[in-house]
Request: fold
Amino acid sequence: MATIDISSQAGKDFSGDALIVPVFSGRERHRLPLAISKVARQVMDEGDFKADFMEVVPLHHPNGVKDSRWMLLVGLGEEEQVSLNKIRKAVGGAARHALKRRWLEVGVVSPSTSALDHDLVQEAVLEGALLADYDLVAYKSGDPKEPRRFKRLEIFTNGEDTRKARRRQPQVEAGVGACHRVRNLSNAPAGELHPEAFAEQAQKLAKQHKLGIEVLDVPALEKGGFNCVLGVGQGSARPPRVVKLEYKPKEKPRKHVVLVGKGVCFDSGGLSLKDASGMETMKDDMTGAAIVLATLVACAEAECPVQVIGIVGLVENMPSGSSYKPGDVLRSRGGKTIEVLNTDAEGRLVLADLLDWASELQPDHIVDLATLTGAALVALGDAVSAVMGTDDKLVARLLDSGNATGEHLWQLPLVEEYRESLKSPLADLKNITGSKWGGTITAGLFLSEFVKHPSWAHIDLSGSWSSKERDYRPHGASGEGPRFLLDWLMS
Reply:
């Protein structure tokens, strides 16, 4: 990660590759250092820059900023409509512009506005720049290339107090580091990151960050009754794993939380085979597990005051002569039987066993995360994830943390009338309803059957993959999840 400094200076004397200057639209609303303001106003007067949201204009050797090769003006739009997330996105978009040009020593002038708390503005500026600071080149051929990453990052606050932002900096860095870790894991080819390899990475990170860890292989899963995990994974040459991680704070924990993650390292659909285009991004079907692992590491880095256990189920859902089949009946770890009508509804089967185990640990809260249904993507798009649960206070806290971090969640109801559609004439439940309506809700209802705990929330990750680069997000895995979880756990 870059060398970072948060300074109360104005930024006009910054010496580096580029100075990023967020600007509000309207001539009288710059509130910038005089030398910089003159440049911004001149460009706006000439009609070359309107400061529309996310508009970027590069200026070479601008007057008044003599020691910076470039100034990047980035628009924030109208001040009355500004939000922390807009600042985060605008700074992130300008930062990615700089990285593409290999401007690696960058300063950012923190915008001044009476509409928002200046400490939170400083934090949003830092987050936006760091979230953009990502470049995956490991799979490129040719001469070895260094990833385009910032070497130095300076935040200038034009005289405003920086003490609170500095105190919050470790949490910001831990959250962003976790985001990048999720991106790395979810972008990795499935042939490289299979269940055993994922478990090995978890072991390395656990040792590095002093986390407790237990890895269950096939004999241990058989002994523990994880029949649904085993059923989903039996068609692959790569056997499944379940990993339990634990973080304990140094002092008495404020509460005890269990995070559960779906880790389908590749999802072909099994014998209910997806079409070719439906498999193109299915290496990311382990994003829930990646989020749980990354969040546990972030908890250790940020010294979170909460005891957190992470449970992830790692499988490949593949077609073969040994695959589980439509019509099979699986007996879950908790004893409930499930008629399998579609092998492509595998994630909920994996989670059924994990949620049963999580309930036995008697935490204060259980939260599971999964790329579970295409219906969530249809309903909410790829920028908002669905959340539902049995504890409205828990759901409300998660919604608040999502809004605070710009990783948006939207609550869906667990409609009891829909539960009837999950009943099977052969077993206790069936894994799909047979209806194309309300698929995200019925999946949540299915999971609730295996939760023996009053405070549970399920997050169906719609925002885990970006089909194109935008603001601070690169193409591919978005990395969303750990930041809002860490915000919730630290609050």
About this structure: The chain has a mean pLDDT of 95.
